[in-house]
Specification:
Blueprint: H1 7-11, E1 16-21, E2 29-33, E3 38-42, E4 50-53, E5 62-64, E6 72-76, E7 79-85, E8 89-96, E9 106-112, E10 119-129, E11 137-147, E12 154-156, E13 170-171, E14 175-180, E15 187-191, E16 204-206
Antiparallel strand pairs: 1-2, 2-3, 3-4, 5-6, 6-7, 7-8, 9-10, 10-11, 11-12, 11-13, 14-15, 15-16
Length: 207
């Protein structure tokens, strides 16, 4: 909710997603909407909203390029969608598909290196179920680096998030956030693990 008089508060009184405000132009606002699988955007501070459909079951991560805020990145189902002329033209898009990702995997986290906007980090998860009762979902996690300066640009970092006991990518949690230290581009990601509050590092891991 942006304000009591905004279109955002009137239309989207429901389970929300992520929200990004362009710090170079605070009238440009972008929101992912859990119900409706849409990206909502406004160029007048939220007074009026438009939507673009995206295929995603969950809450999509949204990031603006730290150098060029007309480049908007949204995690979709099995891919990262870049809007190349946001918000003036939301039809010009480029899709980036991590190698080996399942088409119905969720992009759970996304981050751009503030020191080099050609470098991004993309996390995905795919729900799997154990063959035992009671059934509860586990997540197959993957993490990639995209470096537009390299060819090929994708590098898998999944070995850094393998389960330490079983040495495999299956875990009862998924990567929920990625943060990059602007001073030395150290990467920190966090999970939504159920035992996060009891862990030594509060669920966060540095790689």
């Amino acid at each position: 909710t942006l304000s009591s008089s905004s279109a955002a508060s009137d239309v989207y009184k429901r389970q929300g997603g992520n929200c990004v405000i362009d710090d170079k132009n605070i009238n440009n606002i972008y929101m992912s909407v859990f119900l409706g699988n849409a990206l909502a955007y406004s160029s007048d501070g939220g007074l009026n909203l438009s939507t673009v459909g995206i295929v995603h079951r969950g809450i999509s991560p949204i990031e603006l390029d730290p150098i060029n805020s007309n480049l908007l990145y949204v995690g979709s189902e099995g891919k990262v969608v870049r809007f190349n002329e946001a918000p003036s033209n939301m039809t010009k898009v480029t899709n980036f598909i991590p190698p080996g990702i399942l088409s119905n995997s969720d992009i759970s986290a996304f981050a751009i290196d503030p020191n080099d906007n050609n470098i991004w980090y993309v996390a995905s998860n795919h729900i799997v179920y154990q063959d035992q009762l009671p059934l509860y979902p586990n997540y197959e996690n993957h993490l990639w680096q995209y470096n537009g300066n390299n060819s090929p640009p994708w590098t898998s970092l999944s070995e850094n998030i393998f389960d330490s006991e079983n040495n495999n990518p299956y875990d009862g949690s998924f990567i929920a956030d990625i943060e990059i230290n602007p001073d030395n581009s150290c990467l920190l990601y966090t999970s939504d693990a159920a035992d996060e509050e009891d862990s030594v590092d509060l669920g966060g891991r540095r790689i």
